């Protein structure tokens, strides 16, 4: 027991300040009022930490009550929070400009039937032009029987694809189909088929087999006929219809004949008004195929509107003209320009397939007057009539007299010269020998053989040969020596430029009853001549 007393005294000493706490125990009722204030005062919370050391349960229960008491100063400090005016002007919510996100999309485009069987119907379409900021969630496909307004939804969830196959249909029914685009903003205006679709199997889909030559512009001349055969396929027999530029054909001008396999477009005599785009449609129920044929009827163009002689100078004339008003329903490919001399009146083509509307005609004859005309040209040919200049272009004669330049004559005369002089020869009595030399000169020199200052003429002992070569002449003399003598042969070359001589000395000596040699000596001369 004495041990328990000190245990009770120890808390009694510390309790003098705490007796008021139990008295404050009834005060927990206002504590709930101050409960929102403890949130901004988390600092006093560490103070209860020493309380668990004493381990008395009441102390821990009283601590929450102390917190509101200590929080009271926080309430007194609460008036120091004048920052609420910032909340008085909150920024505008940014969600307001996002209202367009809730707008529904526009209706789908080009809803058509792709295939039909006894129990199914396959339709396809294109995405709407406007989807909106919310995007596109998918499509809703619905159908109803002809004559009723009971639309039945085919898909429970939005379809993402741009085609849908409606199944489990009854053969023989005629159905209308519509498609809606969906997003968060709701459903769009539905796209509906133009006419009801009978549910029956099509054995052979309609198909036009357009000939290759009709896949480009089909050209015909005015007055020619048109007879086009367009084959097609389809079962049961498809319905065939023709239009021109989106309008029905004129039966007075165009005839159409249809059969099970082809259709014929016939025009007996074409006119320019028959040009246009012809469209043929082959249809079986809701399935169809189309082909377009571009027919162009052309003729010769009209003449250019006007022509003008712009300028004339020297031997040239400048022209200008304007394109024709009537191009013959075909592009102008060029122009043909012709000229005519006023004296003769004959027309000569100057330029062909010329693409510009101005040109310069050159090489005109001095002293003549010229007229000009121009034809327009297209795929058919030249225009029937040309446009002719009203004024003539006169090419004036100039007063300048042509004086050819004087040609200085060159003097080609050249004094005779030896290009190969006579050479010394040694020969035997009783044998013949030759003396050879080559000369040149302009004009042709005359060659004279001389012996001892005497001209050798008709002596059978001597035979002179003269040959003319390229730029030179060669002279050869054949000498037959029968006696011993002391003599001198010389050759003389004469022309208008002067004389030139060369001499060969001949020495003869006597030998008794034995052959004797005749020595001919001459100085060696080397001469080089160039024209």
UniProtKB/TrEMBL annotation:
Composition bias type Low complexity, residue spans: 56-80
Residue stretches making up the Ig-like domain: 206-294, 416-452
CDD domains, sorted: FN3, Ig_Titin_like
Gene3D superfamilies in alphabetical order: Immunoglobulins (2.60.40.10)
Composition skew (Basic residues), residue ranges: 1-16
Residue ranges with Pro residues bias: 25-55
GO cellular component: M band; myosin filament
GO biological process, one term: cell adhesion
Keywords: Cell adhesion, Immunoglobulin domain, Muscle protein, Repeat, Thick filament
One Pfam short name: I-set
SUPFAM superfamilies: Fibronectin type III (SSF49265), Immunoglobulin (SSF48726)
Family, similarity comment: Belongs to the immunoglobulin superfamily. MyBP family.
Protein's recorded name: Myosin binding protein H
Originating organism: Pleurodeles waltl
Origin organism lineage: Eukaryota, Metazoa, Chordata, Craniata, Vertebrata
């Amino acid at each position: 027991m004495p041990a328990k007393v000190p245990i009770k005294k120890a808390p009694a000493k510390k309790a003098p300040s705490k007796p008021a706490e139990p008295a404050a125990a009834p005060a927990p009722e206002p504590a709930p009022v101050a409960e929102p204030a403890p949130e901004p005062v988390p600092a006093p919370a560490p103070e209860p930490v020493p309380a668990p050391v004493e381990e008395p349960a009441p102390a821990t229960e009283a601590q929450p009550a102390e917190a509101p008491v200590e929080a009271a100063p926080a309430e007194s400090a609460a008036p120091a929070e004048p920052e609420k005016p910032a909340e008085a002007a909150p920024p505008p919510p940014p969600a307001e400009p996002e209202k367009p996100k809730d707008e529904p999309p526009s209706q789908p485009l080009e809803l058509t039937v792709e295939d039909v069987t006894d129990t199914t119907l396959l339709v396809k379409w294109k995405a709407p032009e406007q989807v909106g900021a919310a995007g596109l969630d998918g499509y809703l496909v619905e159908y109803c029987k002809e004559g009723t307004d009971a639309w039945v939804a085919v898909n429970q969830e939005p379809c993402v694809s741009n085609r849908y196959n409606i199944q489990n249909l009854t053969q023989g029914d005629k159905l209308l189909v519509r498609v809606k685009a969906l997003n968060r903003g709701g459903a769009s205006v539905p796209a509906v088929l133009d006419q009801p679709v009978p549910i029956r199997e099509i054995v052979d889909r309609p198909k036009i087999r357009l000939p290759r030559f009709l896949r480009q512009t089909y050209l015909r001349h005015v007055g020619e006929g048109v007879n086009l055969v367009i084959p097609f396929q389809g079962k049961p027999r498809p319905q065939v219809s023709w239009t021109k530029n989106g309008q029905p054909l004129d039966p007075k001008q165009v005839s159409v004949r249809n059969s099970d396999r082809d259709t014929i477009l016939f025009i007996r005599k074409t006119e320019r008004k028959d040009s246009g785009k012809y469209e043929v449609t082959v249809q079986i129920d809701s399935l169809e195929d189309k082909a377009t044929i571009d027919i162009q009827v052309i003729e010769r163009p009209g003449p250019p509107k006007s022509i003008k002689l712009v300028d004339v100078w020297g031997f040239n004339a400048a022209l200008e003209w304007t394109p024709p008003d009537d191009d013959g329903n075909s592009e102008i490919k060029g122009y043909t320009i012709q000229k005519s001399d006023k004296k003769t009146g004959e027309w000569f083509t100057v330029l062909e397939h010329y693409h510009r509307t101005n040109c310069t005609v050159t090489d005109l004859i001095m002293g003549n007057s010229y007229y000009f005309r121009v034809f327009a040209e297209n795929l058919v040919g030249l225009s029937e009539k040309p446009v002719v200049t009203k004024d003539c272009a006169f090419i004036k004669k100039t007063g300048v007299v042509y004086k050819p330049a004087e040609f200085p004559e060159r003097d080609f005369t050249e004094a005779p010269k030896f290009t190969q002089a006579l050479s010394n020869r040694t020969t035997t009595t009783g044998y013949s020998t030759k003396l050879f030399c080559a000369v040149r000169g302009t004009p042709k020199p005359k060659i004279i053989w001389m012996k001892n200052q005497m001209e050798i003429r008709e002596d059978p002992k001597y035979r002179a040969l003269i040959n003319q070569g390229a730029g030179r002449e060669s002279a050869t003399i054949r000498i037959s020596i029968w006696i011993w003598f002391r003599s001198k042969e010389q050759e003389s070359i004469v022309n208008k430029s002067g004389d030139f001589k060369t001499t060969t000395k001949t020495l003869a000596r006597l030998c008794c009853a034995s052959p004797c040699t005749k020595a001919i000596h001459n100085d060696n001369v080397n001469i080089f001549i160039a024209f």
